[in-house]
Write a structure and sequence with these properties.
The strands form 2 sheets. An 8-stranded parallel sheet has the order 2-1-5-10-9-6-7-8, sandwiched between helices. The protein has helices spanning 25-33, 52-55, 61-69, 89-108, 139-147, 167-173, 215-234, 260-277, 292-308; strands at 3-7, 43-46, 77-80, 83-85, 114-117, 156-160, 179-186, 205-210, 238-243, 282-286. The protein has one domain: Histone deacetylase domain (Arginase, Chain A), CATH 3.40.800. It is 37% helix and 16% strand. With 309 residues, it is an alpha/beta fold. It has 9 helices and 10 strands.
C-alpha cells in the first residue's frame, strides 16, 4: 500500500495580500518538492469540497455562514490583522477541509496506508466560532470528527508539531472524551495559548512548551519523554498530524532551530505508534512553514517517511 497526496489548484488562489507570509508560493514549493522521481509512487487526487454539514461538526453554523458570505468578488476582506480572504479563498477553504475528509475515508477504506494533504489555507488556529492566525476552517479537527463517524473508530488523536500552538484544535477538543490533542510549540509565541496546565476536561490535551532556540535535542525529548508516551496511553484508533514546518531554523516567524531531519524523525516516531495501535492509519495535513526552501525540504522529508512506512 502506498501514500495518497491530496491537493487542488484552487488552493493557490487563496491570497491573503501582498507580503503576507502565508502566500500562494508556499503550495507551489511543496508541490514542486513532491514532483521528483522519488515521489512518483504517490497516488495524487484532487481535493473535493467539504460539505458544510461536515464543517459544522467543528464550527458553529454562524461562523461557517459568515466566512462563506464575505468572500469578496475582488480585492481582499480583512478578518483580523493576520487573516484575510480573496475571491478564491472560499473554495480553497472548502477544498482544504474536503481534502482531509476524503483522505480519512480513503485510509479507513484501505485505499492507501496513509495520506498527506497539501492544502491551504491552514487550519489549526481556527476556533469553533472564529477565524484567526491565517486560518478559516480547522481542517484537521474537521477530519478528526469525520473519522469518528466510522464504526471502527472510537478514539482519534491529533499531534501537532507546528511551531505555533493549535489553539483552535485544542478549543474544539477540550471537552471531547474521544478526541486527543498533543502539541509541541514555541513559547512565548503566537497565539499565547498552550500552557502545560491546559489538559482538557478528560486529560485529553498535552502541551509541551519549547523556549526559543531550543533546537533538535529539546524537541526530540519533548516527544520521547512526553508526547509519545501520552499518545500510547491514549491508544488511538486513528491518527492525524498537523504538519507545520515553521520550526525550521530558516523560518522567519519563530526560533526553534529545527531542520528537516527533525521532521523526518518525529514523523517516524508517530508512525511507530500508529502501527502499534491503529494499523498505521494516518492522515497528515499541512499547516505552517514560511521559508520556501525549508518548507520544501521539510515536507519532502515528512512525506518520504509516510511513503516508507
Amino acid at each position: 500500500m502506498t501514500t495518497l497526496l491530496y491537493s487542488h489548484s484552487v488552493c493557490v488562489q487563496h491570497d491573503a495580500g501582498a507580503s503576507h507570509p502565508e502566500r500562494p508560493e508556499r503550495l507551489g514549493a511543496v508541490m514542486t518538492a513532491l514532483s521528483g522521481d522519488e515521489f512518483q509512487e504517490l497516488l495524487r487526487r484532487d481535493a473535493p469540497k467539504a460539505p458544510v454539514s461536515d464543517i459544522e461538526r467543528v464550527h458553529t453554523a454562524a461562523h461557517v455562514q459568515h466566512i462563506l458570505s464575505i468572500v469578496p468578488d475582488t480585492g481582499h476582506v480583512q478578518i483580523d490583522p493576520d487573516t484575510a480572504m480573496s475571491p478564491g479563498s472560499g473554495e480553497a477553504a472548502l477544498r482544504a477541509a474536503g481534502a482531509v475528509i476524503a483522505a480519512v475515508d480513503a485510509v479507513l477504506g484501505g485505499e492507501a496506508a496513509n495520506a498527506f494533504c497539501a492544502v491551504r489555507p491552514p487550519g489549526h488556529h481556527a476556533e469553533p466560532d472564529r477565524a484567526m492566525g491565517f486560518c478559516l476552517f480547522n481542517n484537521v479537527a474537521i477530519g478528526a470528527e469525520h473519522a469518528l463517524l466510522a464504526t471502527s473508530v472510537g478514539r482519534v488523536a491529533v499531534v501537532d508539531f507546528d511551531v505555533h500552538h493549535g489553539n483552535g484544535t485544542q478549543a474544539a477538543f477540550f471537552d471531547k472524551q474521544n478526541l486527543f490533542y498533543a502539541s509541541s510549540h514555541q513559547s512565548p509565541c503566537y497565539p499565547g495559548t498552550g500552557q502545560e496546565s491546559e489538559t482538557g476536561r478528560y486529560d485529553n490535551i498535552v502541551n509541551v512548551e519549547l523556549t526559543p532556540g531550543s533546537g533538535s535535542d529539546t524537541f526530540r525529548s519533548a516527544y520521547s519523554d512526553q508526547i509519545i508516551p501520552a499518545l500510547r496511553r491514549w491508544k488511538p484508533d486513528f491518527l492525524l498530524i498537523s504538519a507545520g514546518f515553521d520550526g525550521h531554523a530558516l523560518d522567519p516567524l519563530a526560533q526553534l532551530n529545527l531542520d528537516e531531519d527533525d521532521f523526518a524523525w518525529v514523523t517516524g516516531e508517530l508512525l511507530k505508534v500508529a502501527n502499534e495501535y491503529c494499523g498505521g492509519k494516518v492522515v497528515s495535513v499541512l499547516e505552517g512553514g514560511y521559508e520556501l526552501s525549508a518548507l520544501a525540504a521539510s515536507t519532502a522529508a515528512h512525506v518520504k517517511e509516510l511513503m516508507n512506512n
